[in-house]
Amino acid sequence: MDIFEKVLNRFGPIGKYRDQGEGYYFFPKLEGELSNKMMFMGKERLVWSLNNYLGLGNHPEVRKADAEAAKEWGLAYPMGARMMSGHTKYHEQLEQELADYVGRETSFLLNYGYQGMVSVIDAMVDRKDVIVYDSEAHACILDGMRLHIGKRFVYPHNDIANFEKQLSRAKKITDQSGGGILVITEGVYGMSGGLGDLKAICKLKEKFEFRLLVDDAHGFGTMGPTGAGTDEHFGVQDQVDLYFGTFAKAMAGIGGFIASNKEIIRYLKYNLRSQIYAKALPMPMVIGALKRLDMIRSGSEQRDKLWTIVNALQKGLRDKGFNLGDTGSPVTPVILAGGVPEATQITFDLREKYNIFCSIVAYPVVPKGVILLRLIPTAVHTLEDVDYTIKAFSDIKEKLDKGEYSEGGMKGVVVE
Ligand SMILES: Cc1ncc(COP(=O)(O)O)c(C=O)c1O
Q1: Domain boundary among 298, 318, 346
Q2: What angle (nearest 5°) sits at the alpha carbon of residue 198, between those of residues 196 and 203?
Q3: Ligand 1, residues 114, 119, 220: which to mutate, most atoms within 8 A of Cβ?
């Protein structure tokens, strides 16, 4: 069969809805300045869909630092991969400052969090090793594991009894093979906002002698007393062997890092294929990240603002009877019952009647019959935004309960 013909016949689980949904549900264009209110299809909407947690994305000081760095260095510098010709003292400085902030000896920059994570997993394990991971692991963790030729065992999300069972299975294998165990979890799960049960996981370290890799994409900058992450929140920084953060969320930039002890980072520097065989982060990204880190580190003002909004939103929604699942982070999922037709019609109603833009997740990303409206509060939202949204959501829920979204009549994706 012709490869082109094959893929065009399938188009994938989301792509099959492209004709009805493109431009509105998929690939929507949010225009104007990054903020709590942005333009969508020519109208101003209240946006709860950006991981700009601390509001740094459009902060004047950040914009200034980005612009000055771009003016001074351009986007080309440095040319080449770090190992060959793209290394600079600024990259090194950022690595050390990130490590100091998250309480590790040192760190190594990643051009994208996603690719970096794939490479970290690839570099850490070989055929004798076993990976044990949480069933809700992010796609970058799953893709990293695709490269792993040894065994892997999954445990149901945060199910510690089952986790222990999987560790026992893993240990049996590594006792024979002479390999080791790598456990991978997230700090904050980006869809549900639930926290990886790092305390319980770490308690089993001694018994099973595993190494722990934590993807803290959503926790870095938002969780813990100083914002240093979910492991700081739980007080287990010294037990997390490899700490991964991205710049794509609280840092409102691009890139990421992996932090650990000096020897391991030295090993990774020479073995992370996504960094050895790819161009270094451009200078404005590095200088811009230094500025962002400085702001995150030196003041809690943005974090306090974020948590004021998070607490007001989550309390307000809970008081109105909404199910927010087990979120323990800023990520605020509103869980409703319904299928794809209801999900798309609710999204449409929220956008067109209430001018609220939020992300919606339905089957197959969540189980059949569940709709998840995901709200991401940020430091640039206001308490008025929160009140308005809670009222709108109460309206939506009333209509859903009355069955107003189960029939057609409103613009929505037609599902066969
Ligand atoms: C949990 C998690 N890990 C990794 C990534 C990938 O990071 P990046 O956007 O830097 O590639 C994301 C999304 O951005 C994420 O949510």
Answers
A1: 298
A2: 145
A3: 114
